[in-house]
Amino acid sequence: xxxxxxxxxxxxxxxxxxxxxxxxxxxxxxxxxxxxxxxxxxxxxxxxxxxxxxxxxxxxxxxxxxxxxxxxxxxxxxxxxxxxxxxxxxxxxxxxxxxxxxxxxxxxxxxxxxxxxxxxxxxxxxxxxxxxxxxxxxxxxxxxxxxxxxxxxxxxxxxxxxxxxxxxxxxxxxxxxxxxxxxxxxxxxxxxxxxxxxxxxxxxxxxxxxxxxxxxxxxxxxxxxxxxxxxxxxxxxxxxxxxxxxxxxxxxxxxxxxxxxxxxxxxxxxxxxxxxxxxxxxxxxxxxxxxxxxxxxxxxxxxxxxxxxxxxxxxxxxxxxxxxxxxxxxxxxxxxxxxxxxxxxxxxxxxxxxxxxxxxxxxxxxxxxxxxxxxxxxxxxxxxxxxxxxxxxxxxxxxxxxxxxxx
Length: 407
Prior knowledge:
- By secondary structure, the protein is α+β, with helices and mostly antiparallel strands.
- The chain folds into 3 domains: 8-132, Beta Polymerase, domain 2; 138-263, CCA tRNA nucleotidyltransferase, domain 2 (Poly(a)-polymerase, middle domain, Orthogonal Bundle); 270-343 and 380-406, 2-Layer Sandwich (Alpha-Beta Plaits), CATH 3.30.70.
- It has 14 helices and 14 strands.
- The strands form 4 sheets. It has a 5-stranded mixed sheet, with helices on both faces. The chain has a 4-stranded antiparallel sheet with strand order 9-10-8-14.
- Strand 9 (318-326) and strand 10 form a beta hairpin.
- Helix 6 packs across helix 7 and helix 7 (182-189) packs across helix 9.
């Protein structure tokens, strides 16, 4: 199998660049009179980095207080250092600094806290997450974690972003610390039908204690992993039921017949989808979307929300055999929908509602009576025309979609 981890040469290069960046960042902070402790976090710091074309290295600045003014000032300092600095808006703004085509630093201001319960933002826990994973890390465990990350990435369920709703890297690290091996993790989760409750650090005495103590919104998903560093947080809160079911399906297939293909992301092929549509006697509808919202999680979430809206309204008139949402980065996405026509019937009023029933019959002379009411069989319509009729300009504006095009 092709190595799923960066080569020693790549890691060495990343380490050197990161050290130089940290040294320069510390100098810039001193010159800008920001008193902050700099540390590296994320997969790079934990030794669980998955081989990729482009690497994101998380760099945190721990400050006594994180205020809007401090973030503004930090932005000014970083832009002076790197004119390509991008400010990313979120629950707390952070910054992206492209350095090479293969490396992007993400600089995140966090509050310097002594205990997890003092956190004001989930990113404040990052320091404790690194320490927890590092305490359990071995070379073998790192390899098992990378296997899990590659497996989930190939299934499209790796990432806690709202447009993915999958496993975060930290969630997989916690799972592997709990189950020790990738295969053991799959076997534990593959056939679970009800919610899975996992408490790695044994914060709670029982499942009942957990359910009573953690808020309902945090424990509503298919998988609850109690954060070892903070018992009130579910590490897997971002994971949706749809993503978990997809993960289980892939896990079952892998356990039956293990193969390297489960760890490689397949290049998307619209022709393959077209072939599948032909086999199912369905129509393949491709829709390109664009939003003017900030690229990344915000844009991806807006575009995915509209994709699901398309699925909903098309499902009223057609049988949705399959749908695929494609968002890489930027502000655009593609929606692919496999649709089969179905006889659509509009229900009219009950005959006992004489006035309304007569009005319906007058408006629709072709309506037929059955089971005490009028029914109207709607004429055939193509998915393209149906969608054009349903999606109005006002709706696009309301849902922050700047371009809607049926390809």
